[in-house]
Design goal:
The chain is an alpha/beta fold. The protein contains ten helices and 13 strands. A hairpin with a 4-residue loop joins β5 and β6.
């Protein structure tokens, strides 16, 4: 069976994965608040051919010089106007979320990105049912505008086909929604939803994020995810890249130790070593890799110049549903269109 090219992502939130990243590279923790810096990083990732950049809002606050951060959706919407084919994936907490507002924010981002937006959903482990309900609700809201709804029939003074405009009518123990969405269905149909199986049911996720533990355990981790329903798997890989990578991390650890991340694997080594490991060990197992630079100012240039272009990676795509297509996901169904088809078929 021919293997699909690897989807490649890069985490660009904050200063980096290392808790003292703000003390390296730019030399200022406040750099994480500078839009010009985010634009420069996004342009690097776009030009290098990364499938997507992510802004998951789960970075550790700089332990040496605490600072704030920019809201991921706001930041990604800003970057959508200054990049070309780079997908933009944002993180959002589902616990206590208002699905109506979240669905409209994400749909607007997907329109700005022309079908290249995605969601990394987060849920506290003791609020799993709520997380699944939020994901289903935002998909229902995206579906409330069917394809072909715009008719612009001037003689009849009709702008929309009212039969293709629906109320979501979601009722759960956590919230209720009547609908419809105030934003037309996004170009992706449904934005791909990324998340972890310890936070969501597999049915709620389009792409399951895995990681944690030694690199040698990756095959076991991926096999476990697939046996629990994961059809698409994305490896979260923290990286420090370069001949001096180990020394750089040792210096940062002297300020604040980079403790093992239970939800991400970690690679520290040269670009050639990383490319070899991805080709030999990771690519046969996963559908994509989210590279998470230890220090973005230093490790992102190494990734763009010496790593991603040497991988058998997916070419960035154009057109609607491009992030879905990068992961081999089918076109997103619309629950209301499916109900219409079922009703029409049963009435014959």
């Amino acid at each position: 069976m021919t293997r699909r090219p690897l989807a490649t992502g890069v985490e660009l939130d904050g200063a980096g994965a290392h808790p003292a990243a703000g003390r390296s590279g730019s030399g200022s923790a406040r750099a994480a608040l500078e839009l010009g810096r985010y634009r420069a990083h996004a342009h690097l990732a776009d030009d290098a051919g990364f499938t997507f950049a992510s802004f998951t809002d789960r970075r550790p606050i700089d332990a040496v010089a605490p600072t704030g951060r920019i809201d991921p959706v706001t930041l990604a919407t800003h970057l959508a106007a200054t990049t070309s084919r780079l997908g933009l994936v944002v993180g959002a907490e589902t616990h206590g979320a208002e699905p109506f507002h979240l669905a409209n924010q994400l749909a607007s981002l997907d329109w700005a990105r022309r079908g290249g937006a995605g969601l990394v959903a987060h849920a506290p482990r003791d609020h799993r049912a709520e997380g699944d309900a939020v994901v289903d609700a935002i998909r229902a809201l995206w579906d409330t505008w069917e394809d072909g709804i715009f008719i612009a029939d001037e003689p009849r003074a009709a702008f929309l086909d009212a039969d293709k405009w629906h109320y979501a009518e979601v009722e759960t123990e956590f919230f209720s929604i009547a609908g419809p969405s105030i934003t037309p269905r996004p170009p992706s149909g449904r934005l791909p939803v990324f998340g972890r199986l310890d936070e969501f049911d597999a049915a709620s996720l389009d792409v399951v994020i895995v990681g944690g533990g030694p690199l040698a355990d990756l095959a076991t981790i991926v096999a476990s995810a697939r046996s629990n329903g994961a059809e698409r798997v994305l490896l979260h890989l923290e990286v420090a890249v370069g001949d001096d990578a180990a020394d750089r991390i040792a210096e940062l650890d002297a300020r604040h130790v980079w403790a093992p991340n239970p939800t991400a694997s970690r690679f520290i080594g040269t670009a050639t070593e990383l490319v070899t490991w991805v080709h030999d060990a990771a690519a046969p197992l996963v559908d994509g890799i989210l590279f998470d630079p230890a220090v973005i100012d230093l490790d992102l240039p190494a990734l763009t110049e010496s790593v991603v272009k040497r991988l058998d990676a997916a070419e960035p795509l154009d057109g609607p549903e491009r992030l879905r297509r990068a992961f081999g996901l089918p076109s997103a169904p619309n629950r209301f269109t499916e109900r219409r088809s079922t009703t029409t078929g049963s009435s014959r």
